[in-house]
Amino acid sequence: MKLKELVSELAHEVLQGNLETEVTTLVMDNRKIEKGSVFVCIAGANFDGHSVAKEAVEKGAAALVVEKDVEVREDVCVIKVDSTRRALAYLSAAYFGHPARQMKVIGVTGTKGKTTTTYLIRSILEHAGYRVGLIGTIEVIIGEEHIPAKNTTPESYTIQEYFRKMADAGMQAVVMEVSSQGLMMHRTDAIDFDLGIFTNIEPDHIGPNEHESFEHYMACKSLLFQQCRVGIVNGDDPHVEEILKGHTCTVERYGLEGTRDLKAENITLTKEAGSLGVDFDVTGLCSMHVSIPTPGRFSVYNALCAVAVCRHFKIGQEDVQKALHVAKVKGRIEMIPISDRFTLMIDYAHNGMALRSLLQTLREYEPKRIVCLFGCGGNRAKDRRYEMGEASGEYADLSIITSDNPRFEDPQAIIDDIKAGIGKTSGKYVEIIDRKEAIAYAIRNAEDGDVIVLAGKGHEDYQEIEGKKYPMDERVLIEEILEEEPLK
């Protein structure tokens, strides 16, 4: 491949050398440089690739992409750009042959609901016969291959590499979670999204290593709607107009209130043996009745969003209804049907805001009791422990405090912090450090009509203790508990 092919869609300046140069690999990690590589000098928080420019040339790099001046041999091509992170996205797309152009690409952004919405969309599309790839918080799915995720939105090179594999595997569409960090760090640049989705936004990810303010957080989210053809947004979110500021796409709004392009009406909470759900009617751009096996208004929003997306694929009403009725997302209000007497679910709620929202939703179903089992991660902000403790103490009838990922902290010390939060309420609690024992206690002491929530771990299948991840999947723990002593 010639260098000029890589930079054909990238704004750049050639400082020295020749774009006719033949190149082999594209790298941003100086340890991966080989003869003929194009080395993209990224200025990161802990390491600046520009500082090893001469070393890169000595290792065989044929070209450097820079945003700062460097001094290297005159026979090496040096290309200057405004942002090497942004350049990496365009270079990666070209390096892998622009695979996104061979598929429909759907990007989903928002504070909550991204993961659930991507799986719902994929479920409906696959039910209708489409082959769909997925990139998200839990995993990357390419056909039958499931790759555990490291970041919600991977680095741009990795995204394009996944896209290439998906296109080669015959995927017709890909649905991906697009984080504010991913947008801010230009990881999704060079992708022309067919559909951009906005679920909702609340103050989150604000801090020295993330976003400087809520306004900055919103500004980063809004970037998606400057690189998609159609924007499908939650019209009920109070910040939706901020998110759409500067948008260049056609906009469709979905919601439960006011005038919407797609609206959910006649919402009815449903209870079956060991399960909670919602029924509602879809009106507007399409009309149908929908029944979903997950509880609450946020489940309605997620399902309505998925319907809005799949309308663009001209999928039949029956396929949409069937797919939504059976769709499941690991660790997101995941029902575990072990008894008709009570409801057991696993959810990823791992901060006070998410836990409060979930428990408030479950309270609407008027259970006999809400039993909330949770812990908190070690080596993380203590405020989260107080907030989760207070949320559970306020909205659960019984809190079972246990261990999450203690990391390098004493599990009992974490539990003591959680208890301080519960202490602000009149909530009852028990503490059982061992998570399996805690789950067994919840199941053995369940009463008819209870709703039991195992919160915090969600899709995770490990427990991190002193730098090591040990296998621990709550679904497996439940199976083991029932094998040891079956329910009567």
Outline of the structure:
The chain has helices spanning 3-6, 53-58, 84-95, 114-127, 156-168, 180-184, 214-222, 240-243, 297-310, 317-326, 352-363, 383-395, 411-422, 435-444, 474-484, and strands spanning 13-16, 26-27, 38-40, 63-66, 77-80, 104-109, 132-135, 139-142, 145-148, 173-177, 193-198, 228-234, 250-255, 262-272, 275-284, 288-292, 334-335, 343-347, 370-374, 398-401, 428-431, 451-455, 462-465, 468-471. The protein has three domains: 3-95, MurE/MurF, N-terminal domain (Udp-n-acetylmuramoylalanyl-d-glutamate--2,6- Diaminopimelate Ligase, Chain: A, domain 1), CATH 3.40.1390.10; 99-326, Mur-like, catalytic domain (UDP-N-acetylmuramoyl-L-alanine:D-glutamate ligase, 3-Layer(aba) Sandwich), CATH 3.40.1190.10; 334-484, Protein-Tyrosine Phosphatase, Chain A (Alpha-Beta Complex).
